[in-house]
Specification:
Elements lengths: L4 H12 L26 H6 L1 H13 L5 H22 L5 H14 L13 H9 L1 H18 L1
Helix pairs in contact: 1-4, 3-4, 4-5, 4-7, 6-7
Length: about 150
Amino acid sequence: MTNGEDSIFISLVQLYVHHINFTNETLYLVNEREGSASRSWTFDRVYKMKNNIRFINNYIEKHPNLNRKQKSILDYSIYGIVSAIFNHLYYCFSIKNYLKILRVVRKQLNRKLDTGNITISKKKVRLLNLSLNWFSFTVLINQRFKQLSR
C-alpha cells in the first residue's frame, strides 16, 4: 500500500484493543510540505488506493471469527478509503479516469457496508450502499465547492 497504510493500521489496532487512552502529548508529527509527493495526487496514486479496499476485504475473508463490531470498524475503514479515492480523484479528474475508478471500486465493493453503531458519516455510508454513482458524484461536487470557496 502506498497511501492510507496508517489509517488501515489504526483500524486493525481498533479491532483488538480493550481500552484507549487520550493524551495531550504530541506523539506523532507530520511535516506537510507544499509540492511533496504525498500531497500531489496523480491518477496512478489514486488508482492504487483500490489495493487498500482489497487488503481489508482479504483480511475479513481470512478472519471469519471477527465479530460484528470488528467488521463494522473495517467496513467504516472501507467507506473512508472510497471517500478518499473520489476526493483525491478530483485533482486528476477526467471522464476516462472517473469511469476507470468507478469500475475498479465497484468490483471491490462486493457487498453492502455495515458500519453498525458508528454514526459518523452514517448518511454517506447509506448513500454509498445505495449507489456508488451518486456517492462519487456528491463527493466530486463537494470538492468542487470547497475549491471555489478557497
